[in-house]
Amino acid sequence: MTTPLLYAGGGILLFSIGLHALLIRRHLLRKILAINIMGSGVFMVFIAIGARGTDAVGDPVTQVMVLTGIVVSLCFTAVAIALTIRMHNLTNCTTFATDEESSLD
Amino acid sequence: MTELFLHQQWLIWLTLLPLGAAVAAFLAPQQARWIGLATALLLPVCALAGILSVTLTHADPITAGGWPTPLGIELRRDGLALVMLAVTALVGFIISCYALGYFPVHDRHYDKVRYFWPLWLFLWGSCNALFVSGDLFNLYVTLELVTLSSVALIALEGGKQALAAALRYLFIGLLGSLSYLLGVGLLYGSYATVDIALLGEMISATRLNHAAMALMVAGLVLKSALFPLHFWLPQAHTMAPAPVSAALSALVVKAAYVILLRLWFEVFPALDTFAVGHLLGLLGSIAIVWGSLMALRQERLKLLIAYSTVAQIGYLYLVFPLAQPETMAAAWTGGVLLMMTHACGKSAMFMVAGTIHHTAGSDRLSRLAGAGGPVGVLAVVFTLAATTIIGLPPSGGFFAKWIFINAALVTGQWWYLPIILSGTLLAAAYIARVLGWAFLDVKRSSYPVIPWVMKWPPLVLSVIALLFGLIAYEPIQIALIGAPVHGSIMVEMTP
């Protein structure tokens, strides 16, 4: 097993762990963390793919893609945290309310 | 003069102008309305000029920044991009007019007015950028931009339910795009390119590529809310302000679908898509019936329209099983036609729902009683827009369904016929239910005055949706420029 393959496998593992946590954790902050772990997994797969070549530097294109991806994920995390804080201020609650249908007016 | 006009790089302005205007509107909130309106007036002109310059001249391909293609980014100028840009420009213009009335200057909720315009212009610019993107990674970035601005727009109301809907949409959107991105990574690992055209030439049916296809399709299906992954859509589209709901249903859902359409017909043909295509068709069929049944059960107008969107997305997914070799062009054209006409009809319906909410104080169907009288124009706009959702001739929805039925019969997939027919009947039922309330003879004492921009602009979209079948020839001719499909649209059956 080569090193890039190890990293790619690790990335897929991180993606799966994050997916699992995103689906079953109810606390919003945990969900945000889970999404970030999933993102890191995807970025690790990209880096592993870029490192497969023979030269020591690796493929700059995948590194550029990962940088872009990190910026996107940073923006999303910021928005998600802002929304979570706003929701906590309004409802004193850090999970999705279960009775959303009750009072739509 | 004409030469100069046609050789401008109009398609670049379609992205740059709204993004620039969004920043301007954010920095100068007092002028945001006028910046928004000016942009909304200019963008349809740019879109029209862009279409003319592509159809009349064979100008050089546009590359952003002038870098040559392997390194630089080439803009797609094929028919699908052009018609989607045109529809976005039309729907966006009407939504902007409507929003002038929906978010009045002296509003108690000043924040809403202040943040609507920059976010809406960001959304518009990102949609335009998505439609002209030709490589998988740019599609990822533009899709994220679309999602990010949609999330903020859904949260605009600021209530706890709006926040919850926005946050849920954010998680769903991120999950979908990360799944898509992982697929992109796997493809890049095999072929060292993310250009759709190049990938289409090189791709072969390996196991890794099938895994990539599964990840990308799953992500995009989640983002375009196909049953059973539609659970986030009704809340998100209902909690948003009316102009935002219109934009979400008309444009944002279509953005993910356009990517899938491009992938399916340009990258995936070399792969074994038999099972995936039929699975998407099955889920689409369930979406049609389930979405329509749920729409029939709703007590609130906006929820009814949102579930109707779920059903209409189901029709879009019938394209994939119906695109057999002999009906490739038919299925593709039907899908594009349905996208265009649904965008016009559904956005008009959401705007009417917003106006009714505004006048009657609630969008409960029971509050519609007697609405046929003083605000009768709303009932007319709603009905005309609904013709295309039901699929009555001569609406575009009718022709799209006709093409689908033809393709289903030619390819021997008769089971889609009862699905399409029952979807049509159920749609007629839930629309008739709304109209039944509206035409109840109830004396209503007083209605607040509705600004004219909230009444008449949606009517334009309704009339276009109704008559789209009659004028569909030109848009379809444009859509077929550089299309990945060949053959006739209506295929004759041989017994």
TrEMBL record, chain A:
<keyword id="KW-1003">Cell membrane</keyword>
<comment type="similarity">
    <text>Belongs to the CPA3 antiporters (TC 2.A.63) subunit C family.</text>
</comment>
<feature type="transmembrane region" description="Helical">
    <location>
        <begin position="32"/>
        <end position="51"/>
    </location>
</feature>
<keyword id="KW-1133">Transmembrane helix</keyword>
<dbReference type="Pfam" id="PF00420">
    <property type="entry name" value="Oxidored_q2"/>
</dbReference>
<feature type="transmembrane region" description="Helical">
    <location>
        <begin position="63"/>
        <end position="85"/>
    </location>
</feature>
<dbReference type="InterPro" id="IPR050601">
    <property type="entry name" value="CPA3_antiporter_subunitC"/>
</dbReference>
<keyword id="KW-0472">Membrane</keyword>
<keyword id="KW-0812">Transmembrane</keyword>
<protein>
    <submittedName>
        <fullName>NADH-quinone oxidoreductase subunit K</fullName>
    </submittedName>
</protein>
<dbReference type="InterPro" id="IPR039428">
    <property type="entry name" value="NUOK/Mnh_C1-like"/>
</dbReference>
<dbReference type="GO" id="GO:0005886">
    <property type="term" value="C:plasma membrane"/>
</dbReference>
<feature type="transmembrane region" description="Helical">
    <location>
        <begin position="6"/>
        <end position="25"/>
    </location>
</feature>
